[in-house]
Amino acid sequence: GGDEAGAAEVEGGGRRIIAPPVVELIRCDFLANDSWKEADVVLVNSCCFSEALFASIEARAAALLKPGTLVVTLRQQFVGAVQAVTGDGKQGALPPPHRGVCWELIEATERRMSWGPSMMFVYRKTDWMDGPLPAPAPAPT
């Protein structure tokens, strides 16, 4: 059988050999193309995206991706996970792990990139989405 990452086990000379998983890179306009809907991992290199573009990508991913898909974003956070209602009825950012509207934030950490440090956020798509994503919180003044 195979493991969760899609690698296959094969018998070879009395030993188990784990074949690497199949990796397909899709370069496309996330908003106009749905070829990424069956992805297991999606990288959104969002360091320079406008808030409007990033919000559109989040909404498209929420509508398109299957539960369990991992989505990695850089610098920007999904509103559907970060602005979720807490147990006391207030809205606000919560540390990982945190289940939001349709995203579970499973890691938030600063990582060194070729251009310098950047926050990296890893989300898991949940199977729960009740209505549209909440509006982003106003920027602090």
From the N-terminal CA to the C-terminal CA, the straight-line distance is 55 Å
Q: What is Rg?
A: 17 Å
Strand % is 25-35%
What is the number of E strands?
7
* Helix share bin: 10-25%
Envelope shape: globular
What is the H/E string? EEEHEHEEE
Major sheet: size, sense and barrel closure? 5 strands, mixed
Find the structural class using helix and strand composition.
Answer: alpha+beta
* Average pLDDT, all residues: 76
Count up the helices.
Answer: 2
Low-confidence stretches: 1-5, 83-87, 130-134
**Main sheet strand line-up:** 3-4-7-6-5
Describe the structure.
This protein has 141 residues and is an alpha+beta fold. 13% of the residues lie in helices and 28% in strands.
